[in-house]
Amino acid sequence: MENEKHEVIVVDNFFTGSKDNLKKWIGHPRFELIRHDVTEPLLVEVDQIYHLACPASPIFYKYNPVKTIKTNVIGTLNMLGLAKRVGARILLTSTSEVYGDPLQHPQTEEYWGNVNPIGVRSCYDEGKRVAETLMFDYHRQHGLEIRIARIFNTYGPRMNIDDGRVVSNFIAQAIRGEPLTVQAPGTQTRSFCYVSDMVDGLIRLMEGDNTGPINIGNPGEFTMMELAETVKELINPDVPVRIVENTPDDPRQRKPDITKAKNLLGWEPKVVLRDGLPLMEEDFRQRLAVPKNFIFTFITFKFLNLIKKNINIFKMKDIFFNA
Ligand SMILES: O=C(O)[C@H]1O[C@H](OP(=O)(O)OP(=O)(O)OC[C@H]2O[C@@H](n3ccc(=O)[nH]c3=O)[C@H](O)[C@@H]2O)[C@H](O)[C@@H](O)[C@@H]1O
After folding, report:
1. What average pLDDT does this structure show over 23-39?
2. Start and end of every NAD(P)-binding domain (predicted)?
């Protein structure tokens, strides 16, 4: 936070980020934390609005789909109403999910997408599409200064450990010594952007002259199986990969074309996946209280347990056979 800026952060009960990170700002004279649901009107005086509200992990946004739609539609209307009243510039974090299961690869901003309007993911992807429409309608009708970022899969330290998205799942599983759950078929691809690159991209978009939409993401593309192998190699080579059932409408491929971000914002990501994963691992280990050498202890513990179980089985066998 820069000294001359006053920052207001609004969170609600849906907030799944790390609350510890906010704690250090509480009490700072230029910081205000407000608990508020964006589906209700908000009265504050601000110059810029980063409208990030909405659960982003599929398991969270599908948990209460009607609320997800409300957050994207009513929440965005409220934030636009606020921006209009106080003359603030507003940035919406939209998503690569507006491209649905894309038939164009990589995805440019001009692509209109391939979205199932009645599927279980629609509350989020159609919700964000309406949010983009509302942004442009307020821009055209009321001259509002708008910015739209289409975020591609972002990861990094301080993610909720139980967020449910693939990177945090694999890292937590590798640290805990559990199988990495690759959802079938495992050939689906994603492009993962490290959080500091993302934040840099969003600030550049807000401060620049372009409305967007602009893709902000890392074009490095990986299959989920490749991601699992990379996590294994970097974090815990002993964990197995387990293929599990997938959820409906999972996009088969996703990779941003970032030509616009490069040309209009002078932005491109700096952190490659292999450098970003260990930074996230460090933070996850601290929060899970599993130091690096714990893996050895854990394996020994599991091994001893197995021996103990077998001893019990041998004992039971003795009881049965001798009965
Ligand atoms: O950033 C984006 O562009 C979008 O990506 C995510 O959607 P998704 O890519 O489906 O996120 P994940 O749940 O992390 O899934 C990624 C892939 O990993 C797979 N996966 C997920 C979890 C897991 O344990 N194992 C696994 O193989 C899924 O089947 C999927 O193919 C989020 O839902 C959106 O909020 C976000 O806008």
Report:
1. 89
2. 6-278
- Bridging pattern class, strands 214-216 and 146-151: parallel
Question: Of the ranges 158-172, 222-236, 287-301, which one carries the lowest mean pLDDT score?
Answer: 287-301
Residue 14's CB is within 10 A of a number of other CB atoms, namely 17
Which residues face 151 on adjacent strands?
A: 95, 216
Domain that holds residue 43: 7-292
139, burial (CB in 10 Å: exposed 0-12, middle 13-18, buried 19+): middle
Tokens of 172: 């937590």
Q: What is the ipTM of this complex?
A: 0.92
Residue the block writes with tokens 């139980």 = 162
Residues 71, 120 share a domain: yes
Q: Do 122 and 66 fall within a single domain?
A: yes
Q: Whose CA is nearest to atom 23 of ligand 1?
A: 166
CA–centroid distance, 215 to ligand 1, in Å, is 17
Look at residue 1 in the predicted model and tell me its pLDDT: 52
pTM for this prediction: 0.88
Residue 102 to residue 79: CA distance in whole angstroms: 29
Domain-located, residue 2: no
Look up residue 71 and give its amino acid: T
Q: Which residue lies with its CA nearest to atom 16 of ligand 1? A: 166
Question: What is the per-residue pLDDT across 155-210, written as a single tens digit (0 to 9) for each?
Answer: 999 999 999 999 999 999 999 999 999 999 999 999 999 999 999 999 999 999 99
Q: Report the nearest atom of ligand 1 relative to the CA of 169.
A: 24
| Token pair 């409208």 in the structure block, residue | 51
Which one of 68, 97, 191, 192 would you pick to mutate in the ligand 1 pocket, going by the greatest count of ligand atoms within 8 A of its CB? 97
Residue 312 shares a structural domain with residue 171: no
pLDDT score for 19: 67
